[in-house]
Structures are given as structure tokens and as C-alpha cells.
């Protein structure tokens, strides 16, 4: 629940909550800086990829369909734009590599009903 509240805040404050006219150009485009792909996306891209692969596998939930609040349309658009960008896709590890790393270093608990194997 707190995570969803944080997602709503991110959606509102970073994308549509800017009233200052100096931020007007950030409202257009799919990225944090509007149409400009920035260091924010460079940092977030690999994390998003890992999150979107490991969460369904180890926890049995789909972030986009089951966790992201429906009203966070701007945040959803951003996640899709980042993960669909060619440079992000070309630099990504395969799903198998992501899952192998998660098994080895990060995962100590498998949610009941999740399809993953530790």
C-alpha cells in the first residue's frame, strides 16, 4: 500500500505537479526531461528491466497490471518508453541472466504460487 502511495506521488510530483512555467517543456515527451532521454533514464533502465523480469518470476505479480495504480498513466508511459528505447534494450541482459543473478545474490524468498525456482 505504501509503495502504491509512493508511485502516485512520483506520478503527480515529477510529471504533472510542476506549476512553474520554467518546467513547461518537461510536460511533453515520454521522459523525465520531456523528449530528452537523460541520465535519469540511464540509471533507471537497468533497474526497471530487472524489476519487470524478477517480480513476476519470484513474486508472481505483474508490476504494470497488478501494482502500478491505474491513475499513474504518466508513470506507466515513462516505464514503457524507457524499456522500449533501443539503447536500453541493446544494453540489457537476457531474462535468463537477470534471473540467474537474482537467484544467486538477491532472492531468498519465493512467494507462494509464483512460477519461479530458486
From TrEMBL:
InterPro entries listed in its UniProt record: Glutathione-S-Trfase_C_sf
Domain of life: Eukaryota
Signal peptide segment: none
Pfam families linked to this entry: GST_C_2 (PF13410)
CDD domains: GST_C_family
Identification of the protein by name: GST C-terminal domain-containing protein
Species the sequence originates in: Proboscia inermis
